[in-house]
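Recall that a protein's primary structure is simply its ordered list of amino acids. Everything else, from secondary elements to tertiary packing, is in principle encoded there. The following example makes that idea concrete.
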Amino acid sequence: MLFVMLSSIEVLLAVAEFPVLELLKSSVDNCYSSLDYDESKGLRSFILNSIGLKLCSTTDDIEGLLKKTLFYVQASKKNDFVTETRIRTEVERLIDEGFIQSRSSSDDAVLSHRLEPTKIGIATYKGCLDIDKAHSIYDELVRGAKSLALSNELHLLYLITPLESIDIINVDWRNYYQHIMKLSSDEVRTAETIGISESFMIRKAAGQSCRKDAVDEFVVRRFLVTLMIYQYLKETPIWRIAEMFDVTRGFIQGLMTSVGSFTYMLVNFTKELPEFWAYSLLFEGMLQKLSHAATAELAPLMEIPGVKQARARQLYKAGYHTLKDLAWANANDLCQNIDHMPRKQANLIVFTAKMMLQEKAESLKDEAEEMMMKQQK
């Protein structure tokens, strides 16, 4: 039966001239463990996570867990056995870097004493941050907290700009300088707080060389990506942002996916560190704002499944500002007032709004009854 099915698939694919058949018949690519890459970064992350999740508390536990991984099997086949010495080396490196700690101060006792994550170790594994970048991110947040500008979103956006996006862009300094010149005076002050020097930008735009110690060019390049995110937050269409900064639409789309993921990581990272309590609240708010990428008045409409930013804006302009407005709306009126609104979607929006409003009403009723019962007691 299976042979008949496969033969039928092959005939269909051959007739349709799909390249899928060649893919199905080609050899399978090799699969390698990610634990043994970039000077054992993966192995160190594995050790930190296993200690943080309380799966392991000694190097013996770590070795036992490693024996169940693809990494250990592949290393054994190459006669590159994961020895106790190598595990101890990575554990000691994590201790030196401040991610884990041993209850004993003796180096020789590391193998026999319990290992525990430090505060930054817990924050790193819960935030799923790159273990080699965690300390630099921490230091940057400390610096930012001393002079955090909140008059606009630029400073927060800079802090959540993904680090890996910096190296893959080519900077057109003249174009970049023009964007700097379009900023308001308040936004320029924020840029200066971050480390963007106008004199540096002028020299770069003019094609002149600058001293390497004059300005941190990594900060300047990162701020360029921040400006792209800032435009997205202002609801500028992706194609327009790509045109403005001379990048591809794919880059902007990938950037917005990355910035959402990185912000979520930072939320979890800062929640574990008491000194960053304000950051965790600010990043959560920014994450919500990025997810909607719309003004606050559109947020209630976008709670309805299937209603995205463009549709929410159409509904708002047509006079439907709240969930209640849509629950009491007539589907025929929606079709007439909203361009390209299918009747099926109009009926679904009205029905969903009624259901959501009813659920909220029942929830408030339950809370009120619970409060009355407590008062009677």
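The radius of gyration is 28 Å. The chain has three domains: 41-117, 134-292, 296-365.
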